[in-house]
Structure formats: C-alpha cells, structure tokens
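Lab notebook, bench 4. Still working through the backlog of constructs that have no structural model yet. Next entry is a single chain of 523 residues. Request: give me the structure tokens for it.
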Amino acid sequence: MILRSPYPDVRVPDVPLHRFVLARASALGEKPALIDGPTGRTLSYRQLGAAVERVAAGLAAYGFKKGDVLGLFAPNCPEFALVFHGTLAAGGVVTTVNSLSTVQDLQFQLLDAGARFLVTVAPFLDRAVPAAGLAGIERLFVLGDAPGSPGTIPMGALLGTAAPAPDISFEPGRDIAALPYSSGTTGLPKGVMLTHRNLVANLVQTAVLHAIEETDRIILVLPLFHIYGLQVVLNLGLCAGATLVTMPRFELEAFLGLIQQQRITRAFVVPPIVLALARQPLVDQYDISSVTAMMSGAAPLDAELETACARRVGCRMVQGYGLTEASPVTHANPAEPGKTKPGTVGLLLPNTECQIVDPAGGGEVARGEDGELWIRGPQVMRGYLNNPEATAAMLDQEGWLHTGDIGHADQDGYFTIVDRLKELIKYKGFQVAPAELEAVLRSHPAVADAAVIPLADDECGEVPKAFVVLRGQASPADLMAYVGERVAPYKKIRAVELIDAIPKSPSGKILRRVLREREHAVH
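Model written out:
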C-alpha cells in the first residue's frame, strides 16, 4: 500500500534555488539576515542580496562557468551563505565539506566532485592548501580578514570585482545546485546530486508543516556543510525573512548564552543537544524563555527525552525525518499545538509518498508493522555522482528511494523510525533495534549517554552490547538489570562497557562503526 501525505500537494516554483531563497531580500532591506554569534557582525538582507551578486560576478571574472564545482570548506558564519548562493548565481555547483575533514578526506571529495575552486577560512589552511594542491584546485579563496598564504586569494577580491553578475539560463529540474557527500557509514562517501528543483521543492513542502515567521530569531548551530543545517535552517529561515544567528560549533555554555543574548525564538537541533538541554544543570543558569519551538532531526529521539527537553525549556518540541538523498525532509510533526505525537517523526510532507517494505522478502507490511521506508517525491535526488551502481541500489526505476531505515506508521499516519536496517542486531533470529535499547538506558538517572552495538556470539549469532557514559553511580550489572526489566527477554543487553564519550558525527548520529572497531581491536 502506498501511503500519502494528508496534506494537499503544493506547487513547486520553477526557479533556481538562490532566486527562490532571496526573492524578498530587496524588500526586507536593512532587516538583519545573518548575525555572527561570536562577534555580533551583522549582514542585512540588502547586503546579503548584493553580496551574492558580487560573488557570482567575481567567480565569473576568475573563469568560473556554468556547471563548474566549488568546494566550500568553512565553519558556520554569515559568509557561508553568500558564497553558497553566489556560486549558484554563477551557475555553479557547491560541494560542502565537513569541517573536521582531514587532508585526505578533503582531497578525496574535491577530486571526486571534480571541483575547480575551493573557498575556506584561514584556520583551515593547514588542511586546505595541501589538499587543494593534491586535487588540482585552480583557485583557493580565503574568507575573512586574516592573512592567507602564498597562492591564496582573499575573499575581498571576489566581492570587489566591477564586472556585472553573469546572466545564466537555468533548468531547475536538471541543473545540480548542491553536491553534499553522504556520511560514508558504508564504503566511501558518495556525492549526492541535488537539483535546484529538489531543493526548492523541499523548502515549499517543509514550510507547510513548519511556517517560520519573519519575526523569528533562529540559532544556526547545526553545521552548514550538512544538508539539515543548510536547507532546513539557513535556506528555510532566509525564505521566511527571519534573522539567523550563526555558531561555528556547539558548546553548551556558548549556545545558552547566545539564546539569552539574542532572544532566540526557534532552534533546530539534534539528539545530543536535546540530551544536554534535558540533563545538564548549566541550563538553569540562563534565561532561554524566548525559545518557543525546537525541531530535532538527523537521528531517532525517544518520546521521554523529547518530552523532558520540551518541559525544561518550556517550548514546543517536534521531530522530523529525512536524509541527504531527499533534500533532506520527508516527514515532520506539524507545528500546531495538539497535532504533535512525541516519539514519532510525524506525517509525510505534501507531494510525498511512502511504502513500508519487508526488508527480507520485499513485500509490503501491514499498518503498524516495521519495515524499510521507501520514499518518492520531488525532493528525491537525481542520483549519486559518477556511481550508477550505488544509485541503482538506492533509487529504483519507479523513483522509490530505498532509505535503509526501519520504521512503521500508525493509523493516523504518524511514522516512527526504529533504526537503520544495517544496524539491527540479529539475536537468535529476532531483530533488536539499538536505538530502542539506547533510549531505555538514557532513561536511567545515572546515564548521561549510551550506544549499543552487536557482539558476535557463537550460540545466539549476535547479542547487544552497550557503551555507557555515566553521570552518577551505576554498575554494568545494575544497568543490564534495569534494561532487562523494561524490554522483552530477547532484547536484553548482555554486556556493558563504561566509556568517557560516545563517538558521534557532526550531525549527531552515533558512529557505531568506531565502537565496532574498538571492540575488534580489544578482542
């Protein structure tokens, strides 16, 4: 059975992304668009619109042409937005790079994407310069006023060009705008080809369930190199005419301080931030009462933690779901009071269809039963760059995106994500979801954080092992007994190891691969 959104379809404008996002920049004039959190430096909508045109003109003057790829390797800052949209205005494609990338990571992505130009910041030059050399980058631009290094070009050279912005003809349904790279949890990272239409469609779709107001002040702490921060926070916020306050990285005290100082009204977060807001005593030292709404995504969040965070912050808390290959949002809880179901990722967005499929046999499952989510809609990627095999495995001929995520839908059409298909633990033929056990562990008063992985077992196939970060007194035996009282017998945790921190990606996903490698190294 094909499940459809309860919302009517929306019209997707046939325009390039930068024009859609900045359509009201002139009308909004001197209203602050972007504020650099650490310094207070402010960019108005008028300045943003003009700077985007200047960047496009500057890139063209340096020989950048339609279809060329620019690598953007920088932390969250106002300039990220003008480089991203300026590159699009020049007809180019932006591949955003993880700020934590090594020289080898950066070299791989620049080569794989076919990037000609790279934009970075002075603190990243120790990685950017060697990677650019190895990848054959033609121009290396440096943001900010800090001195660069030989062979680099200051950003002012782009903004200072007297040439007019190029007149580019766009085909929004065909032209690639963004080329983010998948996290690479299985194999090498893959370039995800997202067209202008993919990205515009997802902004229109998401706005139906999450209408940001022009009066909103949004904290932009999620990394802009990740599609969640780029699309759901930056682009959706700019579309609405809101003011966004950037943070280069998440630090709880700085985060709370900015919310208090800037009177932030809306925050987009990931589960590790939710966990900190729900549990850390430091929260009580700040006035964060201005926050009226929070949205969590990127990884499953259990109902208890979601409710605890909402209660402590004193705001509405909702979850959504998506993936890079879907620009990224496919599901969201409605923002209206009374229409949110804690613990679920909400309803299908307009123009979006879903099938829930038995991962073993390929047939459909009954309503309420777990299966793999397949998604179809205008936000679904064109495919993986230069990787037809991976594209065929992820995207079938009927346009269904095979997400690899396991979940179910209730009778009201609200979806719950259980776990990644490839991360399910097979215990004596039973499937055990690590995320479920992690949620139970985190409900223990002595547990600050937890992660669960499979442990090979001759008799059972696999058994669950937990890695736990404590904030109080509890022994491994205490924790195993606590979980055992709350789950079915086959889901019991069979081993617990206490560690200092759970390894996570910048978007908040648990890096179980790192824990598995740690386990293999020990044994």
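Notes after review: Residues 428 and 459 are 8 Å apart (CA to CA). The two ends are 45 Å apart (CA to CA). Flag for follow-up if needed.
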